[in-house]
Amino acid sequence: MTGNRVCTLFKIEYPIIQAGMVWVSGWRLASAVTNAGGLGMIGAGSMRADLLEEHIVKCKQATNKPFAVNLPLFFSELQQQIDVILKHEVPIIFTSAGSPKAYINQLKAKGSTVVHVVSSSKFALKAQDAGCDAVVAEGFEAGGHNGKEETTTLVLINAIKNTVQLPIIAAGGIATGRQMLACFALGAEGVQVGTRFVCTHEASAHINFKNSIVEAEEGDTLLQMKKIGAVRLLRNPFALAVKEAEERGATSDELHTLLGKYRAKKGMLEGDLKDGELEIGQVSSIIKDIVSASSVVKNIWEEFNQTLASLNKVI
Q1: Average per-residue pLDDT for the chain
Q2: 92 and 21 belong to one structural domain
Q3: pLDDT digits over 193-205, tens only?
Q4: Whether residues 131 and 251 fall in one domain
Q5: Which H helix or E strand runs over 210?
Q6: Are residues 185 and 220 in the same domain?
Q7: pLDDT at position 148, please?
Q8: pTM, rounded to two decimals
Q9: Where does a domain end: 185, 204, 223?
């Protein structure tokens, strides 16, 4: 895409980025998206350092194009993960859930591009000041962990566009070319897509989880656990138990106990639709099939261009 800063920065054909999601986005999904012309991403948030290394090695074997790793900055093995990323000279790193300032020099030590995920213009400015190369503006429609602000994607893009000079990648509620074009109209130069890529053959999500997304309707996701870190979940018995606990005023400790350990793994990777945590975005309600990752990239890009052409005729 000529003149697009995101494509230039990442050396990719289309400004379509696959989100680095826990338990879902391993080397198979990342390499498939990268080979299709977008930017694939390994989600390190559910990986110990040795497993992350395995996925990076396999991704390099599956593609000769640039790919990324998503690095949540709260992870207990963060330094070990960084060491692995530097060892294998991962070209692009997306950081999230924390401040990149303390790690930016390490991450850029071997020439990597660093992008930070933000939920407000304040954090976007901090990312720019820290030396990041771009920001992901993630609205509260997104699945998984969300910002406290609960700002929608369309509002957030506009606010960040008025605040920083960095390339903006829009995220949250994006699964189609029409939605991508709307984000570009507000100043984004790329989109990060999560939920749509969960329902692909290459995603490591359990088939039960994928089918539950296909069956989801409007209103079937809930933004919960605001006391301990807001997260958007697909409605199921566990999510409803959390909702009931929050409505009766449960403490942070009670919510931590209810969440327990490996709840997301149980739901997303192992397919327990009753007691598992099913992190997914609002846009799940319009996804009605499980397809290849390459077809997702192709369909979004084709619809983006078709919609742009249609608008030009109308205007």
Answers
A1: 94
A2: yes
A3: 999 999 999 999 9
A4: no
A5: helix 207-214
A6: no
A7: 77
A8: 0.94
A9: 204
- 292 assigned to some structural domain: no
Whole-angstrom distance between the N-terminal and C-terminal Cα of the chain? 23
Q: Are 286 and 141 in contact (CB under 8 A)?
A: no
116 & 195 share domain: yes
Strand partners, 71: 95
Cβ–Cβ under 8 Å, residues 174 and 282:
no
C-alpha span between 191 and 137 (Å, rounded)? 9
Q: Do 93 and 219 sit in the same domain of this protein?
A: no
Q: Are the C-beta atoms of 271 and 209 separated by less than 8 Å?
A: yes
Cα distance between residue 65 and residue 56, in whole Å: 13
Domain boundary among 183, 204, 225: 204
User: Would you say residue 262 lies in a domain?
Assistant: yes
Domains in the chain, number: 2
20, 48 Cβ separation under 8 angstroms: no
3-class DSSP assignment, residue 307? helix
What type of residue sits at position 266? K
Q: Are residues 264 and 124 in the same domain?
A: no
Q: Which of 75-84, 206-215, 226-235 has the highest mean pLDDT?
A: 206-215
Residue 51's domain is classified under what CATH number?
Answer: 3.20.20.70
3-state secondary structure of 173: coil
Range of the domain at 139: 5-204
Rounded distance between C-alpha atoms, residue 164 and residue 156, angstroms? 12
Listed in sequence order, the DSSP H helices in 69-141 are: 78-87, 104-107, 121-130
- Check pLDDT > 90 for residue 145: no
Segment 50-54 shows an average pLDDT of: 96
pLDDT of 1 above 80:
no
Helix, strand, or coil (residue 190):
strand
pLDDT in tens, 249-295: 888 888 888 888 889 999 999 999 999 999 999 999 999 999 999 99
Q: Which residues pair with 20 in a beta bridge?
A: none
